Amino acid sequence: MQQTMLENLKQSQNLKLLSQLSKMTQKKLKEPLNSQNYYDNAADWRYMSPTLFKRFMACEFSALHALENPVENDAEALIVGNFVHSYFESKEAHEAFIDAHSSSINGKNGKPKAAYVKAQKMINRLDSWHAFKAAYQGEKEAIVTGNLFGVDWKGKIDCLNVEAGLFFDIKTTRSIQDHIWNEETRTKENFIIRYNYTLQMAAYKTMLEQMYGHEFTPVVIAVSKEDHPDIQMISFDGYDFDQDLQLIKDNQEHIMNVIYGKAEPFKCGHCDYCKDTKQPTDVISVLDL
């Protein structure tokens, strides 16, 4: 009887794995990665990325649900950031972005919402920054791919200068100078560290060096969302990217097992999806809150 139970369990696990593999086959990219399909769900099944990796690190339960049930991300912060990015990609890209997101950008009166009035201030501030305009030269929205510890990765770089060995990433943030509280580490951190942009830079740097065979240096172009936008170029001099690559190496196998249905996803318990699906059966003391 015990043997039968074990066989049934194995069969159940195999069926689950086959189901996941079937999903991946159905979602398989039908053409090479390009600007049209980069953000497609099929590309996320085919390639790991800094964004996807960080989602799984935050909450595997929520990240897996989003991967299996894709919906358009219409968060205002994301659209505002892309509004700024598209301006410095090209005039055509910015106009196309505005046309595609006009209902999000404009209010009922036809005028831009407050967030986009502020975003335009950010654009104007960057556009009047001579050092930025001089440095920000190269291929815009460059797609890169590579292999990190046995898994294929993808990335999209705001501005890539292959000859100079430089790549730039525009980051919009509430404040460049303020530090943000990290509940896990119980410390305040600058926005680059707090939002783990170092992992993104480490992954991009590794993929570029695999592709071109020489060293690349990342530079963040930061602009704040304040009424009077602050601006700053930020380098990573003295920063050790090995710690970010080690984080990927230590966690990637488990994440891939979760994606393939070979491991159960953990629930963080406090993200929106965890709260939406929460079904508590216990009673806790007021002293434990």
Automatic annotation (TrEMBL):
ATP-binding is among the record's keywords: yes
Gene3D superfamilies: 3.90.320.10
Pfam families assigned to the protein according to its UniProt record, in alphabetical order: DUF3799
Record domain Putative exodeoxyribonuclease 8 PDDEXK-like: where: 49-277
InterPro entries: PDDEXK-like_dom_sf, Put_RecE_PDDEXK-like_dom
This protein's UniProt keywords: ATP-binding, Helicase, Hydrolase, Nucleotide-binding
Name of the molecule in the record: Putative exodeoxyribonuclease 8 PDDEXK-like domain-containing protein
